[in-house]
């Protein structure tokens, strides 16, 4: 289980969520300063991304980095019979697909927010993914050892082809809508330069970076999905290698982009958590928020 890839992804994931948690904690402590729709979405997104990251250890990271002779292989062998109830594995596998819907939706909401539209994060964001992935939740899930991979994979007794196809169509549609929202935001920034604050410009940049990463993740997913007939091609193999890192980038980019583009967040973090950096950060030009 302790492969190089597992150690690297776990290390940068833990570091990212440590920073992520500190930022959210700082915002809650300073809620009178951060009580805006953008930061509310940021905090909600943190909760969903944390669930996604933790859940990935059960459905992806641990099984895909465990060989048949590994010390912890017995944990997966215990849940390898498709005819035996392996609860609650099917619920974790349901979250695996449902969180993809939610992550793409949250990026779209962030883009809408930069258009100064009034958007409420409501139950539709959660209910729709759960509805689409219900066949997985209501059927047995198990671990299958795959000799070509030399590791385990999470499988469901139901055919997930339709679920995966619907997810890809959703990802494609929501990415197009996100792109449209960002283009409109750029036009708005260009048409009203004097009325748009530096704060809003740089929070738009945070949203825009997330949209670009979402587009990269979608492209990687499409290559893998439609490259099945040519699985050994350079493009498909490259996409397969990049997939775990692209998925992590989609989940973990938010604290880093916000810290980079927002001087206000950096100053708040320095004051609350890193006082030794306060003077250095205060000397940074205030051209960013």
From TrEMBL:
Cellular localization per UniProt: Membrane
Pfam family, one: Srg
Any one of the GO CC terms: membrane
GO biological process: sensory perception of chemical stimulus
Key word Endoplasmic reticulum present: no
Lipid bilayer topology: Multi-pass membrane protein
Coiled coil: none
Top-level taxonomic group: Eukaryota
Record keywords, A-Z: Membrane, Transmembrane, Transmembrane helix
UniProt xrefs under InterPro entries: 7TM_GPCR_serpentine_rcpt_Srg
Listed transmembrane segments: 6-26, 38-58, 91-112, 119-137, 167-191, 203-226
GO molecular function, one term: transmembrane signaling receptor activity
Family designation: Belongs to the nematode receptor-like protein srg family.
Protein name: Serpentine receptor class gamma
Organism whose genome encodes this protein: Caenorhabditis remanei
